[in-house]
Amino acid sequence: MPTELGYVTLPVKDVNRAMQFYGALFGWACEHASEKGAHVGNTNFPLGISTGGPTDLHFLYFRVDDIAAMKAKVAELGGKVREEGESQSGRHATCADDQGTVFSLWQPAPGF
After folding, report:
1. What's the pTM value of the predicted model, to 2 decimals?
2. What are phi and psi of 80, to 5 degrees?
3. What residues pair up with 95 in beta bridges, in sequence order?
4. Nearest 5 degrees, angle CA 95-CA 102-CA 69?
5. Cα 74 from Cα 94, distance rounded (Å)
6. Which of 12, 30, 106, 109 could be joined to 18 by an S-S link, Cβ 3.0–4.6 Å?
């Protein structure tokens, strides 16, 4: 079997603030929180939040069902939508959270 990703950590400036932002945006429930990091306990793929940011993770795409609603929520939570586009695989938007960590949203086209 090939090697796959096993864990992803989002580097942010303030872990507690990021827990609030991503909890409201994606519904993440964090556990084992400290000033240096937190584990997201309610996702299938293991995720965490850690200090060391903000950083640019524009190549990290979070799959969403309604990209328009998610872009609006990013802005509502104090983040920014930086760039938008569409390709055969679907619609995407590069965003920054309220601390400057950059990530992307992806709404897949049918069949992806």
Report:
1. 0.91
2. -135, 145
3. 81, 103
4. 25
5. 11
6. 12
**Using CA atoms, how far apart are residues 56 and 102, in angstroms rounded to an integer?**
5
pLDDT of the chain, 112 residues: tens digit per residue: 999 899 999 999 999 999 999 999 999 999 877 889 999 999 999 999 999 999 999 999 999 999 999 999 999 999 999 999 999 999 999 999 999 999 999 999 999 9
Which domains, and CATH codes, for the chain? 8-108 (3.10.180.10)
* Element (DSSP H or E) covering residue 53: none
- Closest-CA residue to 32 (of 44, 18, 49, 8): 49
Nearest to 11 by CA among 46, 43, 45, 47: 47
- For tokens 């995720």, name the residue: 47
